[in-house]
Amino acid sequence: MDCRAAVAFAPFHFGALHAPPGAGAVNATAHASVDPNSKQPELKAIAVRLEAVRDPGAARGNRRLVVVGTGMAALAVVEEVLRRDAGWRVTMLGEERGPVYNRMLLSKLLAGEVGRGEIELRPHAWYAQRGIDLRDGCPAIAIDTAARTVTDERGDTHPYDALVVATGSRPFVPPVPGAELPHVRAFRTRTDADALARGGRRAVVLGGGLLGLEAAAGLRARGRTVTVVEAAPRLMGRQLDDVAATMLGAQLARRGIVVHAGRLASEITPEAVTLDDGGMLPADLV
């Protein structure tokens, strides 16, 4: 197509639906209006600015990717980047010790059904073979976007051409008096699972959602006495209705897990959890 001076043409009308991943991205620069019938993006005329960019292949092998985080999402980014272009030099900075592991298998690790090595997604050798600088147990503490650097906990500075922040989440700990006691643990990391597996014999799990019930099942498989306390009137309130929650509660009861729904913990002591109705649940692990 012939374009007059100062006009740039780029085909993008159907890109979001029919182009391969990564193509059709011109759509993202325009407004989001769509045809009310076809639901396709409207034809758009927008102002653009053209700038010269470095040939992506010119500095092959010298581009630096820093990934903050060593979880499953971080590893997926690194694998995809190297699949598309092996020329990146990759540094991964993570808070947890050891290589990336499958966090969804933590309940099986807690139950003793798998070992620590079985949940690792890639061994240490895999990173070394691909020139990935895996700095586990070394979280990032500062990002300077102007200088394009990341500083880690050891004080080392890592320049980057591209930066990915994939740090995941942190568990919410209710502001219950006694939540800071040493026998009170969260359940999110491999270290958490190990600590829970070594914990006391009488466990109270605060939270009857999916993760709480996985923790309860894992602890029960370890032979612990387990009680679940859920603030909502039913288990897994975001996923189940009353009938399904009742069926789930019956299944847990058959496993020997006691459930207190519609209750809150008001205090945690070294020997027990006090509920908001005054009830006391013996506990040396929470």
Instruction: Give the overall pLDDT as a whole number.
Output: 88
Q: How many β-strand runs?
A: 13
Cα Rg: 26 Å
- Give start-end ranges of low-pLDDT stretches: none
N- to C-terminal separation? 69 Å
Structure report:
The chain is α/β, with parallel strands linked by helices and 286 residues long. The chain has 3 domains: 1-51, no CATH class; 64-165, FAD/NAD(P)-binding domain; 190-282, 3-Layer(bba) Sandwich (FAD/NAD(P)-binding domain), CATH 3.50.50.60. The protein has helices at residues 15-18, 72-84, 106-111, 124-129, 190-197, 210-221, 242-254, and strands at residues 64-68, 89-93, 133-135, 140-144, 149-152, 157-159, 162-165, 202-206, 225-230, 257-261, 265-268, 272-275, 280-282. A 4-stranded parallel β-sheet has the order 3-2-1-7. Strands 4-5-6 form a 3-stranded antiparallel β-sheet, with no helix packed on it. Strand 11 and strand 12 (272-275) form a beta hairpin. The longest helix has 13 residues, at 72-84. The radius of gyration is 26 Å and the shape is extended. The model has no long low-confidence stretch (mean pLDDT 88).
